[in-house]
Each structure stands twice: as C-alpha cells, then as structure tokens.
Amino acid sequence: MVNITMYGDGSQKTIVTGNKNFADGVQTFRTATFAVLGEGFLCKFMGFRNTAGPEKHQAVAIRVQADRAIFLNCRFEGYQDTLYAQTHRQFYRSCVITGTVDFIFGDATSVFQNCLITVRKPLENQQNIVTAQGRIDGHETTGIVLQSCRIEPDKDLVPCEEQDQELPWKTHGRNFQELL
Prior knowledge:
Layout: E1 5-7, E2 15-18, E3 34-36, E4 42-44, E5 47-50, E6 62-64, E7 69-72, E8 75-77, E9 83-85, E10 89-93, E11 96-99, E12 101-106, E13 109-113, E14 116-119, E15 129-133, E16 143-147, E17 150-153, E18 164-168, E19 175-178
Parallel strand pairs: 1-4, 2-5, 3-6, 4-7, 5-8, 6-9, 7-10, 8-11, 9-12, 10-13, 11-14, 12-15, 13-16, 14-17, 15-18, 16-19
C-alpha cells in the first residue's frame, strides 16, 4: 500500500503501545510496536510507545522502512532502540523522541527537524547514546541529520561524563548535527 495517512488527536492522546523486547527472545526488528512499510506514509499527531522498560534492553517503539515517510508532531517513547529508521528516506518534524541507548538508529537517510530529544536514565551498566547510524557501505548516501533539535535530559537523569550524543553503529555509520 502507498500514500497512507494516519492522523491522531494528539501525540499524548492517540498512542499505539506495545511491549515486545529482546530480553524475552524477540529479534530487535520484530520488537517494533508499529512498523511502516508503505511508500509515502504520512503521520500526524500520533504517539508510539514501547513499554518494555530499560531492563528488557532492545525494545523498538517504531520501525520505518518506507520511502518518503513523514512524521509531524509525533511522539516516540522507549528506552533502548526507540526509533528504528531502517531504510529509505524519512523526515521527522516537531516530534518528541525519548530513550536511553542508541534510541535513534538505523541505515535510513533520516532528517529530524525542530525535534525534542529526551535522554532518559539508563541502567547502571549502560551509557546514553542518542544516535547510532548503521551504514555498512562507505558509498551509501545515508545518515542521520538533527537540524535545529534540542537534546535534553529527562528529570530522572543525573548528568555524568559518560553521556554521548552520537555513535556510528556500523563500519561506515555517520551522523550530522545542527543544534541551535
């Protein structure tokens, strides 16, 4: 299916929720609460949440492998691996993304514009990493772009020197930031 639109009553009112996770034996990409596969997907004012919690490790709130997917005023909540920008071209504007470890990750060409990125408290043996770009071929033109986004700590997060904003996840991963 192509050119599907989802329109909610607000990102904290219309919420798709689930709790599949890696610790319970589910492969990371199959833990997604919601998966987008159709080209031209448009989503406005929706929330996507994986409630598995930090102790369950990888637990994806949304997995997107659709070309020209657009998310406006949406909310993505989780801990490790919240938003899986798996493939193709994706655009996120005025969204809220929460997580702990690699919580925006994948090999898509994804642009996040004017988004609020909230870093949550990780498990004791973990460190926060916001983005993990998964490019494995140096000739690919994929990457994660954060344009005019704000990165803030959650109220329960105690600042420490172990916090990283980005990490190339695979051999040729890359991330770009323009934070204002």
